[in-house]
Structures are given as C-alpha cells and as structure tokens.
Design a protein that fits this description.
With 417 residues, the chain is of the alpha/beta class. Helices cover 45% and strands 14% of the residues. A five-stranded mixed sheet has the order 2-1-3-11-6. A three-stranded antiparallel sheet has the order 8-7-9. Strands 4-5 form a two-stranded antiparallel ribbon. Helix 14 packs parallel to helix 15.
Length: 417
C-alpha cells in the first residue's frame, strides 16, 4: 500500500511538473468575460498576473454583457475549449456545474492547501453538493454611506461600525430636520435595499421559503417613513429619484447601499455634479445576536472549463486572481475584491477621493458576507415572486403580514414542484 501511495504521489508530482513546464513554454489562457474594453479591472489583472507569471498569457474573449449567460452556455454546450469562464450570475454557475462544464476545484484547493479564509464565507456561493465549482474575485457587499457635513452641522456623532438597527433607527430620526429638508436616511426601492438585511445572519436566505424574518425590516422602514425620517416610496417613485442622486443632493444623512456606489460617488464629487462633499462609510447595522460587520452581496467569479487543455495553468490564474494578490490588482481600479484583508483594504482606501478616516477603512473588512440569492433550483422564479410581493407591500397596496404570507405560500408552491 505504501508503494502504491508513493507511486501515486510521484505521478501527481510529474503531472504538476508537466503543467509548470507547459506554462514556462508559453501557455495562452483564453478567458471568456464581458465588457472587457470598458471594465477597468480586466487590464489591471492581466498586467499584474503576467508580470508575476512569465510564460502564461491571458487572452480575453469578449461577450456582450446582455447576452452573456445565453451565449456562454451555448459555447459550453458546443464543447468550447476556452480555459476560463467568468461568472456573471450565480444561476449560471449552478447550471454549468449541473451540466458538467465546471472543473471541480476541490482537488486543486486540497493539493495546494489553498486558503479560503479571506472569502469570509463567500466561496460557498459557488459550492454545490460539496463541489467547489468556481471562486469569487469580486463582491460588492453592502455598507452604510453617511454625509459627514450633516452630522457635523447637527452636532451628532457619526455612525459606527457596530450599530444595531434600533440604533440606526434612533439616529435616523435624530438626524431628520424637516425645516431644512434633511432626511435621516434614504431607502432605494429595491427589495434588497429594504429587507435583505435578514440574510446577514448567515442562517436565513431568500430562497428557503420562509419569509417571516423580513417583517422586522419592513416595519422598520414604515416606522421611519411615518416619522418623516425617510422619503416614503410613493414620493420617491413620483419624483423618479434614484438613490445616487438622492444622496448626492446633500440632504440625506445615511444611505444603505452596495459598495459599487463608491466609484460614482467619488467621480461625481470630483466633477462637481454632487452637492455632498464630505462622506464616510461604516458597516451596515446588524440585529441583536448578529456579528457586527456582517453584510450581504453578489459575486463575480471564475470557473475553469472542464474541456480546457490547460487546467493546471488555469488553476494558477484562478488561484491568483481570487486570492490576495489578484485582489490588490482589482482593488487598484477602485473595485471591491471578494478577498478580505488589511492589505486589500489599504489599497482600496488609498484611491483618491476615498474617505481618510479609520472607520471608513475598517468598514472594508466585513466579518461575514452572505449571498443575496444563492444558486438553487427555481431561484429566478423565487426572485420574481419576492419582487412582486415587495412591490405590493412597499406601495401600501397590501399590509406587511399579508405580503409575507403571500411570499411563503407562493414560494412553497414553487419549491414543491
């Protein structure tokens, strides 16, 4: 048995050396992605990787964003041999894994002792029945934006990285000044902006068929609207007010929103479009019993094609891209990597226009990030149902309890198919 084990290890070592040798001889990895020419991090990732991995060249295959899921699925079904496919939607990788298009990464991770801790749980978004079908390299988790000028003018302490939702509610009401047209907070109309905070506990999900946990956040929203601390949905809708413009106007004290807003906020302040000038971010508030710094978000990742002829080199790239070094390249363009570390936070906070306070930098280190819509069967149907009922609730068409009962009943029918 020992001889057999030794032989197996020798074979593995030889195969690994073959992969390395192939890379040294010059491997071109075809990476299928979308909006390559207009997405800044692709060029930064390619340049940084090739500089540190001579012998491996990244060649992008650009697919139109609006057709990406359909086009790439067709390519894979037709035995396309491109080495790596970028993952735009969790449902895409779910279907690709089911069809056998995804090279399982478990053996590579185990072989190399690849550290997954920096993903703070996000890698689970690409894991199905024990198979790690891909890894994330970008995640725009949600944070709390706030207008420092309004807090300074009111003589009120800034939000912190450890606030409960009750603390947030009290602070929003305190910061509201109707005489000056100042709202303590603002909610965009999406389901995610109002109630997705329920998934931050790492237990509840939006696809489990049980939605009673959303009631707390709906009631929180309506309490704030009734207190005049946020603009009610009918007014937001009538004004056609987008969250970016709302906060940019300078009369919103706090805004829960995805990290992606940082880049447009910085650029609009620099070009003089926005009234808000001095701002910061904190971790989103949390419920009692949920760790401070817990958030939710969506993923962008990479999958190795099972038909690739360069799997070892492809793994070298995916491991680098999604890990701490690739994360620095992504962060250098102002985008939020999936990997969480002090080094990455330092790169992100060094971007011109980013707040200089330590609390804002600390907000870049979430304790846990849950997936907004996990990749499960019927996820798209479930999402449609939740959005329909959310619309009815938020407009006041039906009471909160009725809407949640409808969610429970309708999703149960879908799950029972």
């Amino acid at each position: 048995m020992k001889k057999l084990l030794a032989l197996s290890l020798s074979v593995i070592m030889v195969l690994s050396m073959v992969g390395i040798a192939a890379a040294d001889d010059g491997v071109v990895l075809k990476v299928v992605a979308w909006d390559v020419n207009t997405t800044t991090y692709y060029a930064a990732q390619k340049e940084a990787f090739e500089a540190s991995h001579p012998g491996i060249t990244i060649e992008y295959v650009d697919v139109a964003s609006q057709d990406y899921g359909t086009k790439t699925s067709t390519m894979l079904a037709g035995d396309d041999t491109s080495d790596i496919f970028m993952i735009k939607e969790v449902t895409d990788i779910l279907n690709w894994n089911k069809a056998g298009y995804a090279e399982p990464l478990n053996a590579y991770i185990e072989r190399d002792g690849y550290d997954l801790s920096g993903f703070v749980g996000m890698e689970s978004g690409y894991a199905f029945d024990g198979v790690q079908a891909g890894l994330p390299f970008r995640s725009d988790f949600w944070v709390l934006f706030y207008n420092k000028t309004l807090f300074d003018d009111a003589g009120v302490a800034y939000p912190t990285n450890d606030m409960t939702w009750e603390d947030y509610k009290d602070l929003a009401i305190k910061m509201t000044d109707a005489s000056k047209g100042v709202y303590g907070c603002h909610y965009h109309t999406w389901l995610s902006a109002v109630v997705n905070w329920a998934v931050c506990d790492g237990v509840n999900t939006l696809v489990d068929g049980e939605y009673d946990d959303l009631a707390y956040f709906y009631n929180l929203y309506f309490d704030l609207a009734e207190a005049g601390a946020c603009m009610p949905y009918p007014e937001t809708q009538a004004a056609g007010l987008h969250y970016s413009g709302a906060f940019g106007n300078g009369n919103i004290a706090m805004l829960p929103m995805g990290y992606w807003y940082v880049s447009s906020l910085i650029s609009n302040i620099q070009n003089g479009t926005y009234e808000v000038k001095d701002w910061g971010i904190t971790a989103v508030p949390h419920k009692e019993g949920v760790p401070a710094g817990a958030s939710f978000g969506n993923l962008t990742g990479a999958m190795i094609n099972a038909k690739s002829a360069n799997k070892d080199a492809a793994w070298t790239y995916v491991a680098w891209l999604c890990g701490p070094e690739g994360a620095k390249a992504t962060a250098s363009t102002g985008n939020r990597p999936a990997w969480v570390s002090e080094d990455v936070a330092s790169v992100m906070s060094s971007v011109e226009g980013f707040p200089t306070d330590e609390a804002s930098k600390a907000a870049l280190l979430p304790s846990m990030v849950s997936i907004e819509i996990p990749g499960v069967d019927h996820a798209s149907e479930i999402k449609t149902i939740l959005n329909e009922e959310h619309s009815a609730i938020i407009t006041g068409e039906i009471p909160v309890d009725e809407g949640i009962l409808n969610m429970n009943d309708r999703v149960a029918e879908v799950l029972g198919k």
